[in-house]
Design a protein that fits this description.
Largest sheet: 4 strands, mixed
Radius of gyration: 23 Å
Structural class: mainly beta
Number of strands: 10
Order of helices and strands: HEEEEEEEEEE
Strand order of the largest sheet: 1-6-5-4
Shape: rod-shaped
């Protein structure tokens, strides 16, 4: 038998039991990290125990929505659960993406319980040189 004495974990567990698992109409939040790597933004979501077919990714205009469902594991007869802390149900996260991101070319990978989205920066948002014309001669200014 596993014994644990973390009062905050116990409070979290009780709150989860009171609120119940996430549903499609009222999902629980999933943890994420977001950072820029070169010419793309990377967003990583923690989804341990979720199968890839239970993950749904949508982009509508500038709103990115990720939903996932962790289903209970089927247990055989004679199994008595001693401890159950892993949340079940539906998890969701919505992110408003900047206009400077290319939402047409988002790449999604799922490995070891982490969903990673790579969103490239749009060409129109990258720095570029503008040439200035003076009479008939043009001079380039880097910006």
């Amino acid at each position: 038998m596993l014994m644990r004495t973390d009062p905050f974990r116990e409070l979290d567990r009780m709150a989860q039991q009171l609120m119940g698992p996430g549903t499609w109409s009222k999902p629980s939040v999933m943890p994420m990290d977001a950072y820029r790597e070169g010419d793309q933004y990377v967003v990583a979501f923690d989804l341990p125990g979720v199968t890839p077919d239970a993950i749904d990714i949508d982009v509508e205009r500038n709103m990115l929505t990720v939903k996932a469902e962790r289903r209970p594991v089927a247990k055989g007869d004679g199994v008595k659960v001693e401890l159950s802390e892993r949340p079940l149900g539906v998890f969701s996260r919505q992110i408003v993406l900047a206009d400077t991101l290319d939402t047409e070319h988002i790449q999604a990978d799922y490995d070891a319980g982490v969903l990673t989205l790579r969103i490239p920066i749009a060409e129109r948002a990258k720095p570029r040189k503008i040439s200035i014309g003076v009479g008939s001669a043009h001079k380039e200014i880097s910006g």
